[in-house]
Amino acid sequence: MTAASDALAKMARIGCPNGVSEALLHGLCPYSAVSEALKLQATSSALEHLKHVGLDASQFSAASRLARDMQASGALAAAARMALPSFESGIAAELRRLQENMAVFRPDPNLARIASDVSASLAPYQSQFQAISRAIESATAALRPQGEMLLRLAEEERVAQFILELGFVPHGELWEHIAEIERPDGADLADFSERLIGEIWPELAKKLALEIPNCMNDAKIHAIYSQMLAAHETELHEMVLNSVPTVLERAVSLARGPGEKMRTFEWLETEVSELPINLAGGYRGYRVWTILIDHTFAGCWTDAEADASKYPNRHATAHGRGTRTASRVDSLNAILLTHFVITMAKAVRDYKAEAA
Fold it and tell me: pTM score, two decimals?
């Protein structure tokens, strides 16, 4: 039995008519009035007072439980805010009179007539009550998927922030490897990240490998990218970073349409951002794209700027800026960004070809 139906049954046992019960339960009469009864405690003086007004202890106990049940059904009070304007007239006045009588549970000679009148007055609006109830149920059902989506986005954000804290580009292929990892307590995150790459690399490398058709059908891009993977595995991290500008430039040049003269940065900024979100890797792809735009193609003119860059920078690599040698994390990030650019260049080219 639901809290609402249980409350109706209890109201019936203390003599409250059905129409009034439903009206109260739907929030048409404030719960605060009924709650006043809870101020009476089961003391000897209170019991004497109850006897004086004609109620025994069992009746008061039932009324107290009823009040608590009605408060527990507080979600139904939302229906009161949707009440029809007609309730602001005589019916509301009758309900207030009923409330005043029930506030101290003092019998009133006219109570039965009032209850009967209110019940009869509410009868024509039964369909509206049902419609309101159905509307609330429908709204709840409609919002449930949105709530589930928000929970999924919250989890995506949690994992993305952890990946960023570890120093990695939040590439989609990292998710399944990192989503279930607990944040290490007291551990140095830089050392933890280095060790983690060694643990996940064998499986990650399989996911990141690209065949020639996925490399714009270009043997040169395929060869350089494949050698980047091999160089990373043998810890030739500087070789990995030095390959980034060549692959990025060639992938974008092959994806440009006839006569397009946009620079690589401008092309990535405009063409990729105009792809349907599902073709750009969704939420995860968007995060990689922002790092590409904000960091990889950011101006970097001095050794100090290059050394301070968290992610591989095209300008620093192409022009020999920076004194810090590349780490395993730098090398993996270079591969993740390059993989993304190759994939997006192909996606843009294919999307435009289909739209033509």
Answer: 0.61
Q: How many CB atoms lie within 10 A of CB 289?
A: 21
Residues 226/227/230/234 CA torsion (nearest 10 deg): -160
Q: How far apart are CA 57 and CA 63, in angstroms?
A: 10
Helix and strand element counts for the chain (H, E): 17, 0
Q: Which residue has the tokens 């101006």?
A: 299
Write out pLDDT tens, residues 120-155. 666 666 676 677 777 777 766 766 766 677 777 788
Q: What is the pLDDT of residue 4?
A: 47
Hey, how many other C-beta atoms are within 10 angstroms of the C-beta on 216? Answer: 22
Give the mean pLDDT of 303-314.
94
CA of 118: how far to CAs of 28, 92, 148, 204, 207, in Å?
Answer: 12, 9, 42, 71, 70
What is the C-alpha to C-alpha distance for residues 7 and 168, in angstroms, rounded to an integer?
56
